[in-house]
Amino acid sequence: MNGNAITVTGLTKRFGDKTVVNDVSLSVRKGEIMGFLGPNGSGKTTTIRMMCGLLEPDAGDGSVLGQDIRRNRRAIKRRVGYMTQRFSFYEDLTIAENLHFVAGLYGMKPKRQVVRDTLEDLGLSSRKDQLAGKLSGGWKQRLALAACIMHKPDLLMLDEPTAGVDPKARREFWDEIHTLANDGLTVLVSTHYMDEAERCHRIAYISYGHLIAQGTVAEVLRNANLTTMIVTGDQVSEAAKALKNAPGVDQIAPFGATLHVVGRDAVALKTSVEAAAKRTGCIAGPAETSLEDVFIQLMGGSEDNMQ
Ligand SMILES: Nc1ncnc2c1ncn2[C@@H]1O[C@H](COP(=O)(O)OP(=O)(O)OP(=O)(O)O)[C@@H](O)[C@H]1O
Q: CATH number, domain at 187?
């Protein structure tokens, strides 16, 4: 196996006459945390399912953990931990009982030891006798993670693992993901949260089935080549009205008492923003472009690709 845990090229999947994943090529290095982003229905789950051997692609090739994604799907499934969007437990069983059940299901041995080690590794030992149904969102997520790393996979596929979980629990969950990656596990994680994208080594952005950006956060920001300005003052809503459809203005978004204005044409944007600020008695200045600005821009630009 080379230094990549995942290398896929041209992955394509159709459902009926709809191409939901279209010519996706992606590589993830061993030990890397790769964030997978994109709007709802853009094809993230379908891509993940093809990469972990659960779904056969209509076109494209690749290898995951050194195994061919078409010929060796069973071998891949054994080495992958997959946390689906809607994982489920027996709510009336405890954490430990749930893990015993999963360990039994997959024939893990020695069962007691495996469960004890997993509880320990994920900081669940002190809660092992709590009923799964009574856990808060963050602890449920941790239990789900425990269940999918119990067989010591080499690759973790996490599909929106922290949806609906509070910021502190999300941060702790991500600390855990980093610990696992430091121990050599490769992680591919889909998310809609920008702060989570920023915690990945690299990110990939998919829209309407097309992979349209890939790289470190800094690279994705740089390649988007956007300029951002902020407008502050008492009349920002007037400034926003003046900027609607103005030359160079691609996005306008209020953030509290300031207006965030983004565009691809730096010169035109600056001219429009400064004129609008002057007219409304506001102040205009430069600002950093955020990852969210980039994704909103990418989303707008790729609608033409919809199948
Ligand atoms: N088994 C299937 N049969 C038909 N259509 C499907 C099937 N699975 C997914 N789709 C469609 O494929 C598209 C991509 O879905 P997918 O779940 O991969 O997107 P996603 O990026 O994971 O979305 P989300 O962020 O909402 O989870 C959607 O339009 C979905 O309705």
A: 3.40.50.300
